[in-house]
Each structure stands twice: as structure tokens, then as C-alpha cells.
Amino acid sequence: MKTLLVTGGCGFIGSAVVRQIISRTPYSVVNVDKMTYAATAASVASVAGDPRYRFERVDICNATEMARIFAAYQPAGVIHLAAETHVDRSIDGPAAFIQTNIIGTYALLDAAFAYWNTLPGAKRDEFLFLHVSTDEVFGSLGSEGLFHPESPYRPNSPYSASKASADHLVRAWGKTYGLPVAISNCSNNYGPYQFPEKLIPLVIANALSGKPIPVYGRGTNVRDWLFVEDHARALLAIMEKGVRGECYLVGGNCERSNIDLVRTVCRLLDEMAETLSPRENLITYVSDRPGHDARYAIDATRTRKSLGWEPAETLDMGLRKTVAWYLANQEWWRGIRAGTYDGRRLGAARE
């Protein structure tokens, strides 16, 4: 039975991948996660009892432990999702992003390459190292145009710079050492189990708590939104059908400005949860994020045609499902707000 190794499998996107591996495929999965502040065991609790699921609490920077894991589980591929991901935190403290996203990716590549070199012919040919990245590495678009696989790299935040660096390392290990690699660059993800520092769960949590809903600048920045389960399906499609050395862009084709998105979430909450006044009244414009990119949008045509993948969720339906999940799981996010992250602003300019 094929085994896939997923790094960061207790994170937001990683846990969706882990859940789908168990529910939609015959494969086994090894979930390797350091369990930083944004990881939660609850996100994989529904599959944790399955005999095809294994968990290893390990930092990908730990070369000895990663060598042990590769040797013990003999994976047929790696889906590399372990990363520090929040742009605002990267502005406040870039060191953790350099360590995990760059040094960690190097260490994982090194361990994967050493393991891959031990494989016999057929298994060696089957192996794939999929590095999951972001559209933010391409910088900021104007009012028109789309990112495509040949777009130049122009990262503007410490987070996107660290992911761009990791992309380049993965590509280099493929070109220089022959390691079978692929890279995916996705648009903004949303859905259940997203840590409530990110825009959509932050809006939901503040709105339900009667607190101001912060919107950077005038809220005109535009993002392409992708439901997390659709993204997980795309990553599994790459593992099964992807071409070695290829770059796959994964987007939802759902552009919306931040202010329009926030207003939509507020209206859904008003519809689905009792309120005395419209929650849009809580919207508060705050100083913009330093270096805030104006617009992201992805051309996923190549990915759709080559993999036969399509996003199943429209933004309106995905948002409705997301709001319903956060309403039904208030104990989860309220526990985080009471402990790990209280909702305060991150990412102000460094002094």
C-alpha cells in the first residue's frame, strides 16, 4: 500500500490533505508536524484512529529524525506543507519564517534526496516531492492580468520571500540532483479549522464577539479565494498525475476585494446567527499593512486541463459552509482566543 508523507499535517491546509488521503484514497499517510501555535490535533481527530494514519511530532529541521521517518515508513512521495504562513507575523518576526520555510525546506530536501537514492528502480521512478507554495511569491498585480507558471518572482513580504526561497531550493534540487519534484502555488485558502489570525476567521470571531472588525486601508486589496477542500483535491491530483519538474497554479477563480468579502461574511452571520444590529457596523478601517500587495489572481488553466481538476465550491457557497462551521465549532476558536491568540493586530511596521 502506498504511503504519503505530509509535513504540517496538523495545520489548516495540511489537515485537509490528511483527511482526504484517508477518506478518498487507499493510501496510508504519515503526518509530520512540529505542533506550533497554529497546529491543532482537532483538525485530524476524525481520521486519527484509522490504521492507515500515523503521526510523528517532529521538526522538519531535525535531520536525524527525518532520516528515521523516511527509513521507517518508506513513503512513495512527500507533500510539503510545513511552514510559517501568516504575513503579519512575518513582519513582526521574520526569523521563524527564515528558519522553517527556508532552512526547514533545505533539511527536508536533503533527507528526501538521501532516501530517494536508496530506492530501487520502480519506486525511485514513482517518488515525487511536492512543495506547496503561494501565489504571493509573484508579488502584486495591477487591476488586470493573472499570475501564470512563468510569472517572475517578486516577493514583497518576509513571508513571501521565504516561500520564494524555498521554491528556488526545490527547483534546484530537481535540476541539479535529479530529485523528482513539483511545485504548486495557490491562492488564498479559506474553510474549516483555519487559525483565527487569518482574515475570514478573524472577521467571524470578532463579529460574534461584538468586537471591531479591522480592515486594512480602505479594503480595496483583491484576492482570489480557494476553498481548502478544493485545494486538497488539487494536491492529491498532482501526486497522482503530476509531471516531474512542473509548476502548478491552483486558484479558485473567485476574486473579491477585502471589504466586499468582509461585508459578505457579516451578512451571512446576520442571517445565520441572531444579532441586534447589522454586523457591518463593526467594520473599522485601520492603517494598512506595510508593503500590502494590491491584487492576486491566478490562471489555473494548465492545472485544470492537465489534471482534470476543477474547484467545486463557489465563493458564496464556500463562505456559507465556512461560517456555518465556525458557528457550530465556537468552542474550538474561542479556546484559541482565550489562550494562544487573543485577536490583537499583528504586522504593524517595525520600529
Brief rundown of the structure:
This protein has 351 residues and is α/β, with parallel strands linked by helices.
Q: What is the secondary structure topology, with strand pairs?
A:
Blueprint: E1 3-7, H1 12-24, E2 28-32, E3 53-56, H2 63-73, E4 77-80, H3 87-92, H4 95-116, H5 121-126, E5 128-134, H6 158-177, E6 181-186, E7 188-190, H7 199-209, E8 213-216, E9 222-227, H8 228-241, E10 247-250, E11 255-257, H9 258-272, E12 283-286, H10 301-307, H11 315-328, H12 330-338
Parallel strand pairs: 1-2, 1-4, 2-3, 4-5, 5-6, 6-10, 7-9, 8-12
Antiparallel strand pairs: 9-11
Helix pairs in contact: 1-8, 2-4, 4-6, 7-9, 9-11
Keywords:
12 helices, 351 residues, 42% helix, alpha/beta, globular, three-stranded mixed β-sheet
Sketch the topology as an H/E string, one letter per element.
Answer: EHEEHEHHHEHEEHEEHEEHEHHH
Q: Unreliable segments (pLDDT under 50, ≥5 consecutive)? A: none
Which structural class matches the secondary elements? alpha/beta
CATH architecture of the domain at 3-194 and 226-253 and 292-312: 3-Layer(aba) Sandwich
Helix content: 40-55%
Q: What's the overall geometry?
A: globular
Query: CATH class of the domain at 3-194 and 226-253 and 292-312, anyone?
Result: Alpha Beta
Spatial strand sequence of the major β-sheet: 3-2-1-4-5-6-10
How many individual helices? 12
CATH-defined superfamily of the domain at 3-194 and 226-253 and 292-312: NAD(P)-binding Rossmann-like Domain
- Radius of gyration, Cα only, in angstroms? 20 Å
The overall pLDDT, averaged over residues, is 97
CATH topology name of the domain at 3-194 and 226-253 and 292-312, in short, is Rossmann fold
Strand content: 15-25%
